[in-house]
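batch_manifest entry 22 of 60
target: S-DNA-T family DNA segregation ATPase FtsK/SpoIIIE
source organism: Leeuwenhoekiella marinoflava
requested by: lab member K.T.
priority: normal
notes from requester: please return tokens only, no post-processing; we will run our own comparison against the previous entry in this batch. if the run fails, retry once and flag.
--- input ---
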Amino acid sequence: MARKKTKTKTKATKQPVKFSFKLSKQQKIVLGSFLFLLGLALLFSFISYFFTWQVDQSTLDSFSDRSMESQNWLNKFGAGIGDFFIYQGFGLAAFALAVLVTLTGFYYFFDKPKKSLQSFWFWGIIVMLWFSVFFGFFADKNPLLGGMVGFELNDFLQDFIGMIGTILVLVFVAIVYFAVRLKLTPELIGQYLKSKKQAISSEFNTDDSDEREFVDTAFDKDHIELPVEEDLEDIEEPVLTTKSQPEPKPAPLEVNKPEEEENFEIEIEETVEEEELVENLSTKLVQDFGEFDPTLELSNYKFPSIELLKDYTKGQSITIDQEELEENKNRIVDTLKNYKIDIAHIKATVGPTVTLYEIVPEAGVRISKIKNLEDDIALSLSALGIRIIAPIPGKGTIGIEVPNKNARIVSMRSAIASPRFQNAEMELPLTLGKTISNETFVVDLAKMPHLLMAGATGQGKSVGLNAILTSLLYKKHPAEVKFVLVDPKKVELTLFNKIERHYLAKLPDSEEAIITDNAKVINTLNSLCIEMDQRYDLLKNAMARNIKEYNAKFKKRKLNPNDGHKFLPYIVLVIDEFADLIMTAGKEVETPIARLAQLARAIGIHLIVATQRPSVNVITGIIKANFPARIAFRVTSKIDSRTILDSQGADQLIGRGDMLFTQGNSLVRIQCAFVDTPEVEKITDFIGSQKAYPDAHKLPEYVGEEGGTGLDIDASDRDVLFMDAAEVIVTAQQGSASLLQRKLKLGYNRAGRIIDQLEAAGVVGPFEGSKARQVLVNDMNGLHQLLNNE
Ligand SMILES: Nc1ncnc2c1ncn2[C@@H]1O[C@H](COP(=O)(O)OP(=O)(O)OP(=O)(O)O)[C@@H](O)[C@H]1O
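--- output ---
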């Protein structure tokens, strides 16, 4: 005990009790509850006063006389308070005072930030005075309405500015209140009325009217609606409001006190609570209008129904032909036995087109020995397309893929309807088909980020491209994705013309959205490079790292459209017959494609390039390096297989949609989902018959190469932006093409050309490697002199 006492003493000398105006937590609770109850007492007194004031008149002067009773619910206190605040004071408006006191108590009790309390009091008193003066007009009919204060103030105002003047003053104060306190503007009221009107009209716009709109598409009545992500989002997405956010509470601080120190008050330094910026424009906009919805312009857009796709496997379940399995197994075992390889265990997985036999060899058998027997096993099974995977990655087994006698078609319908695809939370989900274990294979194009497809003619490339495009049509709203289609064969992608105004993007001056002419491809690719540069600028200004972040910010209304910001749809560039293009246009297409492939992933431009001839002069090193995701249908030689996959295997496929997919690591064998031309036609017809945007999505304009690139450039051949560019360079005193790209929103090629022209004109010095060129003109005067003297 004695020891304890000395401990207390030493502590007491060390920590002198500081005097502070700040209330401790306990004091706040006491003060808060007092004010809260006082407010309630005022409220009850006021209510009761209205019924008892006449009877209680006589008791007012005899407060100390205990024999006198008052009728008020709070007896003489209530009668006195009521008389003071209502009759002598503010009349009916005195209730505001009771509310303010209660609220103050509440704020102290729960230790809420006091800043909003000040504004409550300020505006509360104004409201109280306003009503008091307003009811002052009726003082002769009922003096209680406005109270003495109301009557006197009203009278005072009328003496100077008359009744009309007083009314005008009251109207003005009311406007100030609505504008400053409630932040109401005529636009907001207009918007509110408009949204109400829309809500009512959309309620009337029932399914009937939708059916009427597309009645001639003939697919409506009995189609099964797929659960569409966007629709769900509409319903579920809560609108974020600052008011609904819980206010930050100071973390409770637990202080362990020894018992005998009970008298000691620990001074807890209150942390300054950060006020939320109510004026934050984006929060306010979201509060008022909700998040930006890119699909609003085509809000009635209906996704194609699954019924438009054909079910090729109707009635056919996965039939396992026991006889075939047994036969194949015996042959594999026998062949291996002939080479003195014993098997410990064998297991079969029956896929849509091939069956995988997994073998566990006896201990001590070399894997390479089995791998070398590929041809012998194929011979003994008398089957094409045998692929040996030794060992299967992730498993301690050796796989032998043997084609089934009766291959099954994988319908696009089953792939689209699979939960894996339907529930895919991806930016650009693609379903390619089914794996050997009959699982639907779904990948995100946005993550690939570009796809290279190769396969000999007739092996399923076009069907594969259609499957990819169909996947996107079933999952993405027209506002979210745009296609740029290049089809030199002129027949494969023509069906997509029907959805030009929904899903396609094109150059401003071109008539056809689907590009079939190789010369136009060059312009389109360069235009996409400009689009890429512009998007990078937007991202930089928005301080977003990629398109997903940028669009999220835009939806939250954090980016101002007046600064050029807009919702950015993904752009998918599909090039069929790439070999043909490279052969005719060479470097001119290779350079922009390589540039796009290197840089475009972050800004949402993704490339899908298909080719028949996967030779090295078509798929060059630079292109290969930037296309980590590859699909190989059957190719004719091992060399081709190596070019596309960096390993053999594609030459052993069996065709008709049998494919290998890699994303840089292991190969996955997939049976591509089959979607036939009539099905694609039905889908595009269905989409095409709906309300569309006025035009296809516009790509930036690209001025072609006509100007020439030599340094002996004629002054008349200069780019139209030559003068602007010269001014930018001279002002910034920095001779770089990327500066021009940014400032004038140009593509790389055009900016480079202008720099050449500036060099020829003597504005900038020659190319100096990684350094920016020297600017040879010091100021604007010098520039004008130089150009005038030419
Ligand atoms: N996934 C698949 N399932 C079943 N059959 C398929 C599949 N893919 C393609 N086929 C069959 O192969 C035929 C040729 O396919 P496709 O037209 O896609 O070949 P391609 O590689 O585009 O040929 P080309 O390069 O000559 O245009 C189709 O008509 C179809 O009968």
